[in-house]
Amino acid sequence: MTRKRVFVADADGTPYAVTVDVGDDDDDSDTPSAVRTCCVSMGRYFARILCALIVPPLRAIAIILMWPIQLLVATFTPKVARALPVELSDRWWWGSRGGGCDATGLKQARAIKAISFVAVRCLPRCFQEYLDRRAVAKAIATGKPAGSMLSMVDEYNALSKAPTIAAGMKALGMKRLDEWFWRPNEISRTPNSKQLTHPMLRPVQYVPIPTHPFTDPTTFPWVARIESQYLVVKEELQAVLRSNRGWAEPLLPDFMGNAFRSAKKGKTVGASSSPPPPADGAAAAAPAPEPAGSDSNGDDDDDDDDVTVGDWQQLMFNTPLGTSIDENKEAMPKTWELLKSIPGFVDNNFAMISSLRPGGRIAPHVGHTNLVTRLHLAIDVPEPSKSAIRVGNDVRTWEEGKVLLLNDAFDHEVWTFGTKNRTVLFADIWNPSLTAEDIAALKPHWDAQKNTLGVMAASYEQHAKKQGREAGGGANWYVA
Description:
elongated; 480 residues; 15 strands; alpha+beta; six-stranded antiparallel beta sheet
């Protein structure tokens, strides 16, 4: 029984308090309500368990049954119908030095496009995540370089948050940037694209912004200051040459980037063994993950007949995947500070001293992205008329102490015909077509994309340091 105090009024309206008994000790009127509440709670609990056990398998079965339909719907669309004949006839493949790929390169190019098409347009997200996790785990377990390709692609697509890139995508009819992976030939030949595309503009990661083979350096007020400091860089270079430390030849990734082929006799390293330990002392960095050789992306030529082993020597400050080589920065501190003073300098991109020996050639290839512009500061060019670089359809040379701005996203190649080394300092700055708003929007995703490949970046760095210990070229490799 419950006792409650209530207020009542008498006949005159005067209130007074009284205590009353509510209910009875043997009243069990609340029992059905309590039992009902308990039953409902238990029912909900068991329902959650049942859903956790049954729903995921049912969902997986539904996805598997629906995937063929999704594949058909994704395949038989006007966009795919337009792209299919264009891409089947495309003879461009990054692993075969640009546009002249052989039969093997053509098969690889078609295979990559087919895989990209299925992965980008047809696979459910949950399957993509599952396959990505398995690939990373397997690579790490076998000692191969590993990175989350799905996360990298997500960050690549997120670059579209930059207004200039978003406007370019609209002009080209692109809904996602990763469409570039499966229909690059069609996109690169879009008519009336206002300098957004070019048949020879075929980087690994393309963004639709105005891109030119060469850019006039005089349009940048900071260029004169950089050029005035070239003797400082040359003095540090000579000190490094005297010590003959930190130099290395490029490494070449294999078809899927799971091993590195040394420039020496095609030897493969790192495919089935754990990465070598870091080197003591000065170290060189690794090449970019693009398969073709490059004076701008860190890869040597695929054909040993095109570049004599030892012709191209590199002293890197950053690897192409963003790993810092602190030993080389400490060896040339003024040079690194000079680079950091450049407005728009991309401090986690490939940066190095590149030296090509007499008679050396770097075969046609493309770089990683047109999001950046490559800066060359000519440090030692004693024979400017006997060295040349072709970018797209334009051919230029270097003038000692002067800056050359180019975009290595175009097909390009390098030659030296003289009797002395040609040496340049190079680094990346943001593409001049990007605004401050664009850079603020895309930089977090650009940095995150580098981070998604952390294990791969470390593996490149370690293999490059090993290569640096073995390469060297001897004390007389540099011909001044």
